[in-house]
């Protein structure tokens, strides 16, 4: 088993994972086989490249699984550094005063890199942010909800992190 290169900035994406997974990830990245991994597992990318399509895709999932949740106001691809470093996406919940009534607004931001990505990878992020409608924290019921929306959520979340590494290496072949 090869040692994990903890000096690799890429490994920051996998901080929460157990050592055996980190070792596998480290081997995959350092062997230069990440691009083959994606080509084999996900030969083509999703079609939700416009913000209109992204909103419709997200809202359809929301209607399917979180019918009684509040209205989703917007979903946007955004180029923001913290999206990549921390959460890969954000779910902002604001209360705006409209006259005397407080109106809730839900906005989801998706890291710009996911505009051209495998569908399962985009879905993992969308599912994650939608789950924040119900659960603010990353607790057990949060992840149960994620797995309810995407049965192999944990696998796809790991692939989402691997995909961010692919992008940083300049190897995103889903991009035109
Ligand atoms: Zn989260």
UniProtKB/TrEMBL annotation:
InterPro entries: UTP_pyrophosphatase-like, YgjP-like_metallopeptidase
Residues annotated as domain YgjP-like metallopeptidase: 66-160
Protein name: YgjP-like metallopeptidase domain-containing protein
PANTHER family tied to this protein: UNCHARACTERIZED PROTEIN YGJP, UTP PYROPHOSPHATASE
Cited Gene3D superfamilies: Metalloproteases ('zincins'), catalytic domain (3.30.2010.10)
Signal peptide start-end: none
Entries under Pfam families matching the protein: YgjP-like
């Amino acid at each position: 088993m090869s040692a994990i290169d903890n000096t690799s900035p890429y490994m920051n994406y996998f901080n929460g994972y157990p050592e055996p997974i980190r070792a596998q990830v480290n081997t995959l990245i350092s062997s230069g086989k990440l691009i083959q991994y994606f080509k084999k597992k996900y030969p083509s990318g999703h079609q939700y490249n416009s913000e209109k399509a992204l909103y419709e895709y997200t809202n359809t999932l929301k209607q399917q699984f979180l019918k009684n949740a509040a209205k989703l106001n917007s979903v946007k691809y955004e180029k923001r550094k913290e999206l990549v470093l921390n959460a890969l996406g954000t779910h902002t919940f604001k209360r705006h005063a409209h006259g005397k009534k407080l109106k809730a607004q839900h906005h989801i931001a998706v890291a710009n890199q996911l505009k051209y990505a495998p569908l399962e990878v985009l879905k993992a992020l969308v599912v994650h942010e939608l789950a924040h409608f119900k659960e603010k924290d990353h607790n057990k019921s949060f992840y149960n909800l994620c797995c309810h929306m995407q049965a192999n959520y944990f696998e796809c979340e790991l692939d989402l992190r691997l995909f961010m590494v692919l992008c940083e290496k300049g190897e995103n072949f889903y991009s035109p």
